[in-house]
Specification:
Low-confidence stretches: 134-140, 267-286
Helix content: 40-55%
Number of strands: 15
Number of helices: 19
């Protein structure tokens, strides 16, 4: 469990929390909270309380209840303390951090190869999510495995339907807008939730993921020291692009950048501002590529099939050049996107995030005005409102009452119990969402 403790420690966002852990790690006795207060400036009391609250929620520290006899003390939990000490000193003969391969390493496997492999695997998953609407650009190749497709459907990122792959959902489009590290954890959490269905223990899965996060990028590790359960997990992680196993040497595996950044805040493949190109560049070095005019014409300076496929979700593309595609945002294209669960706010956010530098320059020249043409933004929202004019409500229609008095009594009772949706006094009919109590009420009136 030392790898889990070290991963939890490295993932602590607040610097005071890490400082407190290191200060308490080798203390033989619990520390009184009054002594801890002396370490913190009065102006930083709020940060101290937040750090202790975080450590307590993660079950890293134990804080005693206040009492008159004994002062409140804080200490690291026994399991976390011993595991972290073991991780930092390298003690024990366990394989918590993987065992490097001692044999000859497979040839031509360097960082560039692993990055290309991870990008190809992950782009295949993203392509499937995008193209699940059925009408987008199809990705060449087989795409993700059947197990990954089932996982995407279980997480409601895509739905099964009349199309070959179903359709993208609102959660699926939000998934596309996330940074890759968040996307990876989204799928891994779904995998952990469904671990029991695959005859795997969720705790073992999470521990193995922490181990992967501690491995060195580009280094070969042995599969012979893994347990049977870990070997089974490895085949699933290959599908995600977190691990590469050379076909010529199945006893070795290489963690990719997607795996080694699991327990850090470093970017795996890209950030949101880098768009959907999955390029291995920093966010600060990437530029937007979309220009949209007041006449709803859209120009995207990209050759990435994935970026073009995302645009096709809400744009009617008409022309494609080697480094640019053009099209128009139309009422039908927006309604098609909305029918798959994509909201107008998500479309506007995507266009704004990936706006061309020229649009940003124009916005800054106007004193920080809107990046997108206001007419386009308003119209996209109006097209969504059009689609929401009619709302269906399942329920029951009551009519053909014997008298006005009977109708009024039943309608009033339905309104009192909160099930009345609509009524027409002229036609003596009303609509309710539930009928059980109203049915009993009518029976009791007729018995009188």
């Amino acid at each position: 469990m030392s790898v889990s403790s070290l991963a939890s420690f490295e993932y602590l966002e607040r610097l005071p929390a890490k400082t407190f852990v290191m200060a308490l790690l080798y203390m033989s006795k619990p520390l009184p909270l009054t002594d801890l207060d002396l370490w913190v400036l009065p102006s930083s009391k709020r940060e101290k309380d937040q750090a202790l609250s975080l450590l307590s929620r993660l079950h890293i520290v134990t804080i005693t209840a206040p009492s008159r006899e004994d002062p409140q003390v804080v200490s690291l939990t026994k399991n976390f303390s011993s595991s972290l000490q073991l991780a930092l000193t390298g003690g024990g003969d366990h394989n918590s951090f993987g065992v490097p391969s001692s044999g000859s390493v497979a040839q031509n496997i360097d960082l560039a190869f692993l990055d290309d492999y991870a990008r190809a695997q992950w782009e295949g998953i993203l392509h499937y999510v995008v193209n699940s609407v059925g009408d987008g650009m199809r990705q060449e190749g087989s795409g993700p495995t059947a197990a990954v497709k089932e996982l995407l459907a279980a997480g409601n990122l895509v739905t099964r339907g009349r199309h070959a792959g179903g359709g993208i959902t609102q959660a699926g489009f939000s998934f596309l807008l996330q940074e890759v590290n968040a996307q990876v954890w989204t799928l891994l959490l779904l995998w952990i939730e469904n671990a029991e269905k695959m005859s795997m223990d969720s705790v073992d899965v999470l521990t193995f993921l922490f181990m992967l996060g501690s491995l060195d990028l580009g280094r070969a590790y042995s599969t012979t020291t893994l347990t049977e359960a870990q070997t089974k997990m490895l085949s699933h992680l290959v599908d995600f692009g977190l691990v590469y196993i050379p076909p010529s040497m199945p006893t070795q595996f290489f963690p990719t950048r997607l795996a080694t950044t699991l327990t850090s805040d470093a970017s795996a493949l890209r950030s949101v501002s880098a768009g959907f190109d999955a390029a291995l560049t920093a966010a600060t070095g990437s530029k937007g590529f979309i220009i949209i005019e007041t006449n709803y014409r859209l120009y995207a300076y990209t050759s990435s099939p994935l970026q073009i496929a995302v645009l096709s979700l809400f744009t009617k593309l008409s022309t494609r050049y080697p480094n640019m595609v053009s099209g128009r945002i139309t009422r039908d294209s927006i309604r098609q996107a909305i029918s798959h669960g994509i909201t107008s706010d998500q479309i506007i956010s995507y266009l704004s995030t990936h706006a061309h530098p020229q649009l940003l320059k124009t916005s800054n020249a106007q004193g920080g005005g809107p990046v997108l043409p206001p007419t386009v933004v308003d119209q996209i929202r109006l097209w969504q409102i059009e689609n929401e004019r009619m709302k269906s409500t399942p329920g029951f229609l009551f009519r053909d009452f014997e008298s006005q008095k009977e109708y009024e009594g039943c309608a009033t009772y339905a309104d009192e119990i909160g099930v009345l949706v609509w009524k027409s006094d002229a036609k003596r009919m009303f609509f309710v969402t539930r009928h059980e109590q109203l049915r009993d009420y009518i029976k009791s009136r007729k018995l009188k």
